[in-house]
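Course assignment 3, question 2. Fill in each field.
Student: A.L.
Task: Predict the tertiary structure for the chain below.
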Amino acid sequence: MADRHNSAHQWFWQTSDSIGLAGVVLAGALEWIWPGNLESILPAPYRTLLGGIVLLAGGTFIAQARRELKRGRQPAAPGKPTTRLLTSGIYRWSRNPIYVGMLLVFAGGAMALNWPWLLAATTAMVPATYLLLIRPEESYLARTFGREWEDYRARVRRWL
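Answer field:
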């Protein structure tokens, strides 16, 4: 962490990677103890196809968001100060496209791999992402950008 007191995230674990890893570890443990099956909800060929589409959409969100961060010369790594509010590209539709993408990747992967515990863990990742990542970011952006942030927040949804 470069300057944790002048950034949205104060701790090393406040990343989407940490939340995702915790979800995968929890899901893996539960799957090992109580194996599940999504087959009764959606048969394999459809589930795999749908999961693949959702996973691809999530990966696209992440790639587009990272491209915008690079184009705007803003850090993707936590602990570094944001110097400019990004409102172009995918940030015109979502204030948190990396987090949306992460959740879609996990949900799509869970469907494609027939891993119901990962689907359940992904559901639990939503409030964790909000509480541990989004709330501190929104507070930081409000302090840093004031009216510009408030205008952007009024125009663009948090998720989709």
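Instructor remarks: The chain has one domain: 44-155. The chain is about 65% helix and 0% strand.
Grade: pending
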